[in-house]
Design brief:
Endonuclease III, domain 1, single chain, 2 domains, binds iron/sulfur cluster
Length: 218
Protein backbone atom coordinates (compact mmCIF):
# COMPACT_ATOMS: atom_id res chain seq x y z
CA UNK A 1 0.00 0.00 0.00
CA UNK A 2 1.32 3.44 -0.93
CA UNK A 3 2.06 5.87 1.83
CA UNK A 4 4.57 8.61 2.50
CA UNK A 5 6.95 6.23 4.26
CA UNK A 6 7.16 3.99 1.20
CA UNK A 7 7.54 7.00 -1.10
CA UNK A 8 10.23 8.43 1.16
CA UNK A 9 12.15 5.15 1.42
CA UNK A 10 12.14 4.81 -2.35
CA UNK A 11 13.43 8.36 -2.75
CA UNK A 12 16.04 8.00 0.01
CA UNK A 13 17.35 4.83 -1.57
CA UNK A 14 17.81 6.71 -4.82
CA UNK A 15 19.02 10.13 -3.61
CA UNK A 16 20.49 9.20 -0.21
CA UNK A 17 20.69 11.70 2.65
CA UNK A 18 20.76 15.12 1.01
CA UNK A 19 21.78 16.92 4.24
CA UNK A 20 19.27 19.71 3.99
CA UNK A 21 19.11 22.63 4.66
CA UNK A 22 22.38 23.45 2.83
CA UNK A 23 23.71 26.14 5.21
CA UNK A 24 26.40 26.60 7.84
CA UNK A 25 24.34 28.47 10.45
CA UNK A 26 20.73 29.03 11.47
CA UNK A 27 21.10 32.68 10.43
CA UNK A 28 22.00 31.49 6.94
CA UNK A 29 18.96 29.17 6.83
CA UNK A 30 16.68 32.06 7.76
CA UNK A 31 18.16 34.37 5.13
CA UNK A 32 18.04 31.57 2.53
CA UNK A 33 14.39 30.78 3.31
CA UNK A 34 13.45 34.36 2.38
CA UNK A 35 15.79 34.64 -0.59
CA UNK A 36 14.40 31.44 -2.12
CA UNK A 37 10.89 32.88 -2.48
CA UNK A 38 9.99 32.95 -6.20
CA UNK A 39 13.44 32.07 -7.47
CA UNK A 40 15.73 29.10 -8.08
CA UNK A 41 18.20 27.83 -5.52
CA UNK A 42 21.06 28.60 -7.90
CA UNK A 43 20.19 32.31 -7.66
CA UNK A 44 19.94 32.05 -3.89
CA UNK A 45 23.43 30.53 -3.70
CA UNK A 46 24.86 33.51 -5.58
CA UNK A 47 23.10 35.95 -3.26
CA UNK A 48 24.29 34.12 -0.15
CA UNK A 49 27.84 34.03 -1.50
CA UNK A 50 27.63 37.82 -1.96
CA UNK A 51 26.54 38.32 1.65
CA UNK A 52 29.16 35.91 2.98
CA UNK A 53 31.95 37.51 0.99
CA UNK A 54 31.35 40.74 2.89
CA UNK A 55 30.62 39.14 6.28
CA UNK A 56 26.95 40.06 6.09
CA UNK A 57 25.26 36.71 6.56
CA UNK A 58 24.72 36.96 10.33
CA UNK A 59 21.51 38.53 11.65
CA UNK A 60 23.64 40.81 13.84
CA UNK A 61 25.44 42.21 10.79
CA UNK A 62 22.25 42.46 8.71
CA UNK A 63 20.32 44.20 11.49
CA UNK A 64 22.99 46.91 11.59
CA UNK A 65 23.11 47.33 7.80
CA UNK A 66 21.24 49.67 5.48
CA UNK A 67 18.75 48.02 3.12
CA UNK A 68 20.82 49.20 0.15
CA UNK A 69 23.90 47.43 1.51
CA UNK A 70 21.93 44.18 1.57
CA UNK A 71 20.02 44.66 -1.69
CA UNK A 72 23.12 45.23 -3.82
CA UNK A 73 24.55 41.91 -2.61
CA UNK A 74 21.42 39.86 -3.30
CA UNK A 75 20.52 41.11 -6.78
CA UNK A 76 20.66 37.59 -8.23
CA UNK A 77 17.71 36.49 -6.06
CA UNK A 78 15.14 38.65 -7.87
CA UNK A 79 12.78 41.11 -6.10
CA UNK A 80 15.97 42.06 -4.31
CA UNK A 81 14.82 45.40 -2.89
CA UNK A 82 11.71 43.82 -1.39
CA UNK A 83 13.71 40.88 -0.06
CA UNK A 84 16.42 43.14 1.40
CA UNK A 85 13.78 45.16 3.21
CA UNK A 86 12.23 41.99 4.64
CA UNK A 87 15.53 40.47 5.68
CA UNK A 88 16.73 43.64 7.43
CA UNK A 89 13.41 44.10 9.23
CA UNK A 90 13.24 40.47 10.36
CA UNK A 91 16.88 40.53 11.49
CA UNK A 92 16.17 43.68 13.53
CA UNK A 93 13.05 42.14 15.10
CA UNK A 94 14.94 39.02 16.15
CA UNK A 95 18.03 40.84 17.42
CA UNK A 96 15.95 43.44 19.30
CA UNK A 97 13.64 40.93 20.98
CA UNK A 98 15.78 37.83 21.41
CA UNK A 99 19.35 38.92 20.58
CA UNK A 100 19.84 35.87 18.32
CA UNK A 101 17.84 33.20 16.54
CA UNK A 102 19.54 30.50 18.59
CA UNK A 103 18.17 31.95 21.81
CA UNK A 104 14.67 31.43 20.37
CA UNK A 105 15.11 27.65 20.53
CA UNK A 106 13.48 27.64 23.99
CA UNK A 107 10.19 28.99 22.61
CA UNK A 108 7.24 26.65 22.12
CA UNK A 109 6.13 25.86 18.58
CA UNK A 110 3.03 27.99 19.15
CA UNK A 111 5.16 30.95 20.23
CA UNK A 112 7.42 30.55 17.19
CA UNK A 113 4.43 30.41 14.83
CA UNK A 114 3.00 33.47 16.49
CA UNK A 115 6.24 35.44 16.16
CA UNK A 116 7.14 34.52 12.58
CA UNK A 117 3.65 34.56 11.08
CA UNK A 118 3.22 38.13 12.30
CA UNK A 119 6.26 39.24 10.27
CA UNK A 120 5.56 40.52 6.80
CA UNK A 121 7.01 38.32 4.05
CA UNK A 122 6.75 35.03 5.95
CA UNK A 123 4.20 32.83 4.20
CA UNK A 124 3.28 29.25 5.07
CA UNK A 125 6.12 27.58 3.15
CA UNK A 126 8.77 29.91 4.62
CA UNK A 127 7.32 29.49 8.11
CA UNK A 128 7.35 25.70 7.79
CA UNK A 129 10.96 25.71 6.51
CA UNK A 130 12.01 27.84 9.49
CA UNK A 131 10.20 25.58 11.97
CA UNK A 132 11.65 22.38 10.51
CA UNK A 133 15.19 23.35 9.59
CA UNK A 134 16.05 25.94 12.25
CA UNK A 135 13.93 24.82 15.19
CA UNK A 136 13.70 21.08 14.50
CA UNK A 137 9.93 21.00 14.91
CA UNK A 138 8.06 18.19 13.10
CA UNK A 139 6.55 19.95 10.09
CA UNK A 140 6.02 18.86 6.49
CA UNK A 141 7.12 21.63 4.12
CA UNK A 142 4.71 21.80 1.19
CA UNK A 143 6.10 23.56 -1.86
CA UNK A 144 5.25 23.59 -5.57
CA UNK A 145 7.43 20.52 -6.23
CA UNK A 146 5.70 18.54 -3.48
CA UNK A 147 2.23 19.49 -4.72
CA UNK A 148 3.08 18.47 -8.28
CA UNK A 149 4.67 15.15 -7.31
CA UNK A 150 2.01 14.13 -4.81
CA UNK A 151 -0.83 15.03 -7.16
CA UNK A 152 0.74 12.82 -9.85
CA UNK A 153 1.55 9.97 -7.50
CA UNK A 154 -1.97 10.49 -6.20
CA UNK A 155 -1.40 9.65 -2.57
CA UNK A 156 -3.40 10.41 -0.58
CA UNK A 157 -6.40 10.58 -2.92
CA UNK A 158 -7.19 14.10 -1.80
CA UNK A 159 -4.05 16.14 -2.29
CA UNK A 160 -4.74 19.50 -0.69
CA UNK A 161 -1.95 20.91 1.48
CA UNK A 162 -3.73 19.88 4.65
CA UNK A 163 -4.11 16.25 3.51
CA UNK A 164 -0.48 16.01 2.37
CA UNK A 165 0.79 17.51 5.63
CA UNK A 166 -1.41 15.36 7.82
CA UNK A 167 -0.62 12.09 6.02
CA UNK A 168 3.15 12.79 5.86
CA UNK A 169 3.39 13.57 9.57
CA UNK A 170 1.44 10.42 10.39
CA UNK A 171 3.31 8.12 7.99
CA UNK A 172 6.76 9.46 8.95
CA UNK A 173 5.84 9.34 12.64
CA UNK A 174 6.78 12.97 13.22
CA UNK A 175 10.49 12.17 12.66
CA UNK A 176 12.24 15.50 12.14
CA UNK A 177 15.21 13.92 10.35
CA UNK A 178 12.94 12.05 7.93
CA UNK A 179 10.77 15.13 7.32
CA UNK A 180 13.88 17.17 6.51
CA UNK A 181 15.24 14.67 4.04
CA UNK A 182 11.79 13.92 2.57
CA UNK A 183 11.36 17.56 1.61
CA UNK A 184 14.90 17.63 0.18
CA UNK A 185 14.14 14.50 -1.89
CA UNK A 186 10.91 16.07 -3.17
CA UNK A 187 12.84 19.13 -4.35
CA UNK A 188 15.47 16.94 -6.01
CA UNK A 189 12.84 14.77 -7.73
CA UNK A 190 10.95 17.86 -8.88
CA UNK A 191 14.11 19.27 -10.45
CA UNK A 192 15.34 16.07 -12.06
CA UNK A 193 12.46 13.78 -13.06
CA UNK A 194 9.08 15.18 -12.07
CA UNK A 195 9.48 18.41 -13.99
CA UNK A 196 6.63 20.14 -15.79
CA UNK A 197 7.03 17.49 -18.47
CA UNK A 198 7.87 14.43 -16.38
CA UNK A 199 10.50 11.82 -17.22
CA UNK A 200 8.63 8.82 -15.83
CA UNK A 201 10.75 6.18 -17.58
CA UNK A 202 13.78 6.92 -15.42
CA UNK A 203 11.99 8.11 -12.28
CA UNK A 204 12.61 6.13 -9.07
CA UNK A 205 8.93 6.56 -8.14
CA UNK A 206 7.49 5.11 -11.33
CA UNK A 207 6.24 1.95 -9.61
CA UNK A 208 4.42 3.97 -6.94
CA UNK A 209 2.95 6.59 -9.23
CA UNK A 210 -0.57 6.67 -10.72
CA UNK A 211 0.50 9.07 -13.46
CA UNK A 212 3.28 6.72 -14.64
CA UNK A 213 1.03 3.67 -14.38
CA UNK A 214 -1.64 5.39 -16.48
CA UNK A 215 1.00 6.20 -19.10
CA UNK A 216 2.14 2.59 -19.35
CA UNK A 217 -1.33 1.00 -19.34
CA UNK A 218 -2.58 -0.01 -22.81
S1 LIG B 1 6.77 8.62 -12.22
FE1 LIG B 1 6.56 10.46 -13.48
S2 LIG B 1 4.79 11.59 -12.71
FE2 LIG B 1 5.38 10.04 -11.19
S3 LIG B 1 6.69 11.12 -9.76
FE3 LIG B 1 8.03 10.19 -11.29
S4 LIG B 1 8.32 11.72 -12.91
FE4 LIG B 1 6.58 12.36 -11.61
Amino acid sequence: MRNHRLIYHTLREYFGDLHWWPAETNDEILVGSILTQNTSWKNVEKAIAGLKRDNMISLQAISAAEEDDVSKRIRSSGFYRQKASRIVRIAKDIVDRYSSIDSMQVLSTGELINFFSNLSGIGQETLDSILLYIFNRPVMVIDAYTRRIISRVNYPDRTGDYEIRDAALHDLEYSVDDLKNYHACMVELGKTFCRKTPDCQECPLKNECNYAMDLSSP
